[in-house]
Amino acid sequence: MYEIRIIGAFVLSLLVILLLSKKEIGVAIFTGAVLLGLITIPIKQLLSLTLNTFLNLNNLILAFAIGLIPIIGGLLSETGLLDKMVRNFPLGKRAFLMFSPAFLGLLTIPGGALFSAPLVNNGGQGLSNTRKASINVWFRHVLHIVYPLAPTLIIACELAGYSVYYLIPYLVPYFVLSMAIGFLYLLRKASNEDIMRYEHNLRDFLIPVFIILLAPIIDFLLRAVAGLKSLATLIGVTVALLVMVIYARIDLKTLSKVSKKMKPWSFAFLILAVLEYQAVFMNSGVSPLISKANLDPIVIIFIGFILGFLTGRTSTPIVILIPIFKGAYGIISPLYLSLMYYFILLGYIISPVHPCLIVTAQYFRISVGEVIKDLYKASLMALIGGFLISLPLL
């Protein structure tokens, strides 16, 4: 009876997360954590875990840092620096079609796919609207595989207990594979003539790129040299934000307007909600029961692809599967974690409820089904290729 109650509570918490995550993922995960805790542990213990999560200095620093990241993206867009960066891109069409959605995808801007869609449309002359939409969606997410400030990657590493920079080398082969598939499959019919008809201003291209890359560079250096963790991320993001504000001469009114638009508090709360769920899960008694089920690790990882497809999210499957994996095997190795993250991303990219895919299809005036039909082949190739790359080491 006890085991049924514990497993039932866990399944119920997952259902709540899946249902509520369509609106607000942070609230969904926190609600699932509270529900799981109320059924499986004493209320005093649940309150203690919650206070420890939300008052832990390291957690608060990380949450604050993650909350600042979308503000940088919003300011780059508001000031027109993003537009200058793209208009002064120095290479040919194919590189432009990869670069423009990829770099804009690094900035967590609501509806961000609509920023890169017009660029892909202009640069992809001669391609069908379906293929342009596929290019926009695919390359928008490729850099997320190895970008150290990608929120879901940070969440995955926090839950698994690894440094982001420790995991990235394991992810590089999947990044290379995805770029190769995108180039060979999606761009094979695109011409490679110069995208612009006028002289490029390299300075207008490099300054936004510098601002985008400044935070991860500082974060990496402070972690490597000074041994800092979440504080390194906060310092890196803060410096990048200050450079942005000073260079573009942004006033308080603009900063306030962009901050409200980007909703940084939702990103910060998401991190804390994830850590809360992990704390409750580890004390709920679910782990010992999962370990008895003898789930094959590859099965868990393939479930990640399915959940990414069904939820149209990346953080939701991560929050669900990493505790399951750790419950079954005690730890999750970097190889399994990187493969899980990659598979979730591949399912997410072709999900019919993926917001980027939906708004991209709307922009190009085609159906969501048409984009999925064109993209699923690339996703399937990446899924098989990723598995084959990892197979010798699994």
Number of helices: 20
Strand content: under 5%
Helix content: over 70%
Structural class, by secondary structure, is mainly alpha
How many structurally independent domains? 1
User: Overall pLDDT, averaged?
Assistant: 89
User: Main sheet?
Assistant: none
Question: How many extended strands?
Answer: 0
Rg measurement, Å: 21 Å
Q: First CA to last CA: what distance?
A: 36 Å
H/E topology pattern:
HHHHHHHHHHHHHHHHHHHH
Unreliable runs = none
The dominant shape is globular
Description:
It is a single chain. Helices cover 78% and strands 0% of the residues. It is built from 20 helices and no strands. Helix 8 (129-142) crosses helix 20 (368-390), helix 10 crosses helix 20 and helix 16 (297-311) packs parallel to helix 18 (334-349). The protein starts with a helix and ends with a helix. It has one domain (59-274, 287-393). The protein is mainly α and 394 residues long. The longest helix has 25 residues, at 202-226. The mean pLDDT is 89.
In short:
This protein has 394 residues and is mostly helical. The protein has helices at 2-20, 25-40, 43-55, 57-78, 81-87, 93-105, 113-123, 129-142, 151-160, 164-186, 202-226, 230-248, 252-262, 264-284, 286-291, 297-311, 315-329, 334-349, 355-363, 368-390. The protein has one domain (59-274, 287-393).
